[in-house]
Each structure stands twice: as structure tokens, then as C-alpha cells.
TrEMBL record:
Pfam families: Nitroreductase (PF00881)
Taxonomic lineage from the root: Bacteria, Pseudomonadati, Pseudomonadota, Betaproteobacteria, Burkholderiales
Domain Nitroreductase: 7-166
Designated name of the protein: Nitroreductase
């Protein structure tokens, strides 16, 4: 797949088949992730691969409850509140795999480094015919002591990117993009 096509056609995938993703495919995605740039080449990322359905179901319930307690009452959050209140809404869309990218150190560029690894991983998933979606709604819970305990993550780790992976059940619809705001600072 041509790189620019991959960048333009990757979509957040929210509907998956029940087919699992084998370890070799997951290792390939992680290999793509670790080739991301990182500040002073620190490579602070760690990868926690959750393929246990019961764990994912439990994490969905707990993270939804946590988010409901913490989101604001402002009208802008109404859509999320409705989703989180829906008992049938699965935070991970029943995807077979959740790949959590965390930083082992709370260092200055941890967020940037892990986000770049996440983008590499999502593009590699797309290039391999897999779907992915960053689940920000799980991120805050995974940074609490209870959330970390659920996945046995060390307490000092910072979770940046919870990414679901699976086989898309169909092609996700295109999403719109705003026009880029560009300022050219050219010589006179
Ligand atoms: C930081 C971040 C957090 C996100 N959190 C969620 C989420 O919790 N649930 C979800 O369904 N999609 C989530 N998404 C996916 C976005 O909604 C999606 O990328 C956006 O709508 C654009 O669609 P596209 O990725 O198909 O171009 C998140 C994306 C990012 C980058």
C-alpha cells in the first residue's frame, strides 16, 4: 500500500468480526510502533496486549462508570454521557484486542513519544488489513490505581494510548476534514 494512501484511507474502526488477531500480527504492529521517533531517542513506550474478553468486558464497565462520575454536566458532554449511560455500549466495541501503549517513565515527552508510536501502529494495522481505534474514553481510568491494577500495570506507568485492534466487519465510512489553516512566512 502506498504510504500517502494509507495515511488518507485509515479510519477509526468500530465494528469488528469475532476473529482473533494472532500474536505474530500483533508483534508486527508493535515493531512498527517502536520505529516511531522519540525525544532524545528515549523510547519510553511499553505495550500491554489484552486479548482476554472477560478482562475487556470488565474494563469497559469500570472505565465507563469512572468517566460518568468525572465528565462535566456541560451540554458539550451530553453525547458522551448518553453513550456512557447506555448499558449495551461497549467501550471497546467488542474488538478482540486492546493494545495499551504506556510510558514506563513519567518523563517530559512521554505523551508525544507514545502518541507517535500509536500512529505508526494504527497505520501498520491499516496496511495489514486490520482496523484500529484509539479509545480515549478508557485513558483516564487506566491512569487510576484501580485501572492499573485491573491490567497489572505498574503504578508509576503513564497510559497514553489504549488502541483496539481487530478485523473490520466492513469498510468504515469516510470522515470529513477541515481545511488546513496555513500561514506561509516567505521571504519578501
Ligand atoms: C486521542 C483520541 C481519542 C479518541 N477516543 C475515542 C474514543 O474514546 N472512542 C471512539 O469511538 N473513538 C475515539 N477516537 C477516534 C476518533 O473519534 C476518530 O479518529 C475521529 O473521529 C476521526 O475519524 P478517523 O480516525 O476515521 O479519521 C479517538 C481518537 C483520538 C486521536
Amino acid at each position: 500500500m502506498e504510504l500517502f494512501d494509507a495515511i488518507k484511507n485509515r479510519r477509526a474502526v468500530r465494528e469488528y468480526t469475532t476473529e482473533n488477531v494472532d500474536k505474530e500480527s500483533i508483534r508486527k504492529l508493535i515493531d512498527a510502533a517502536i520505529h516511531a521517533p522519540s525525544a532524545v531517542n528515549n523510547q519510553p513506550w511499553t505495550f500491554t496486549v489484552v486479548r482476554d474478553k472477560e478482562k475487556l468486558d470488565e474494563l469497559s464497565v469500570q472505565a465507563k462508570a469512572y468517566m460518568l462520575r468525572s465528565i462535566s454536566d456541560d451540554p458539550g458532554a451530553a453525547h458522551f454521557r448518553k453513550q456512557l449511560e447506555d448499558r449495551d455500549f461497549h467501550l471497546f466495541y467488542h474488538a478482540p484486542v486492546l493494545l495499551v501503549i504506556s510510558s514506563a517513565e513519567m518523563e517530559k515527552w512521554a505523551n508525544e513519544d507514545c502518541a507517535l508510536a500509536a500512529q505508526n501502529m494504527m497505520l501498520a494495522a491499516h496496511g495489514s488489513g486490520l482496523g484500529s481505534c484509539w479509545i480515549g474514553l478508557a485513558q483516564h481510568y487506566l491512569n487510576t490505581a484501580a485501572g492499573k491494577a485491573l491490567l497489572n500495570l505498574p503504578i508509576e506507568w503513564l497510559t497514553v494510548a489504549p488502541i483496539i485492534i481487530g478485523h473490520p466487519s466492513h469498510k468504515a465510512s469516510a470522515t470529513s476534514r477541515k481545511d488546513a489553516v496555513i500561514y506561509w512566512i516567505d521571504p519578501n
